[in-house]
Amino acid sequence: MTDKNGVENNRDSIERVYKEKVKFEIYGEEMIEKRVKSSGNSGRVYLPPNWVNHHVKIIRID
Fold first, then answer.
1. Concatenated DSSP letters for 23-56?
2. How many CB atoms lie under 10 A from the CB of residue 4?
3. What's the pTM value of the predicted model, to 2 decimals?
């Protein structure tokens, strides 16, 4: 089934799109590489306190 833009909206096509690797080119102030830890029903990444109230982007790499 397709939506009004002609895009398939079934789950299989959505999962297929997200499994492909893509390249991101971003500019920023600092970078930290960490592993996500389990926290209840979700994941958690702790960041330095001086990052509070700043905008961050999270990219899963594996």
1. ------S-----PPEEETTEEE----GGGTTS--
2. 5
3. 0.58
- Rounded to whole angstroms, the Cα distance separating 28 from 58 reads 12
User: What is the C-alpha separation between 50 and 6, in angstroms, rounded?
Assistant: 44
Alpha carbon separation from 2 to 10, 15, 45 (Å, rounded) = 8, 15, 36
Place of tokens 């960490």: 34
d(CA 43, CA 37): 6
pLDDT, one tens digit per residue, over 11-50 is 666 666 667 788 999 999 999 999 999 999 999 999 999 9
Q: Are 43 and 35 spatial neighbours (Cβ–Cβ below 8 Å)?
A: no
The residue behind tokens 């830890």 is: 37
